[in-house]
Amino acid sequence: MMYSENDSSIYIASVLGARLKRIRLNLDMTQAEVANKAWVSRRTVLNAEKGDAKLSDLIAILGALNMLNNFNVLIPEVPLSPIELLKLQGKVRKRASGNNKKPKIQEKLTANPELDW
């Protein structure tokens, strides 16, 4: 079913609640079993099936119904834009600086000629 911008949020929530109920019944689970598995009250499951649930409760209920992977379809992960990738990459060296300094061991030896063998 496709939704449009003209559909009310209450209507869409009630349709999603009816789908939750259908999924629960297809899994042959009672509201109490789902509530116990989701760590919410049975009343919370009943309200969710009517389309009246907090997001955290909905996530818990979907987890109890083994349906959490469907959130990837509902809200897909947005990839980084090329500009954001460049910002994350930071400054990349383009040239070698060269090593103009003497090694530290030779500096110590030339500083103390008494230690030279």
From TrEMBL:
SUPFAM superfamilies: lambda repressor-like DNA-binding domains. Residues 20-71 form the HTH cro/C1-type domain. InterPro entries: Cro/C1-type_HTH, Lambda_DNA-bd_dom_sf. Residues 93-117 are annotated as: Disordered. Gene3D superfamilies: lambda repressor-like DNA-binding domains (1.10.260.40). One of its GO terms (molecular function) is DNA binding. Transmembrane segments: none annotated. This is Helix-turn-helix transcriptional regulator. It comes from Acinetobacter faecalis. The lineage of its organism: Bacteria, Pseudomonadati, Pseudomonadota, Gammaproteobacteria, Moraxellales.
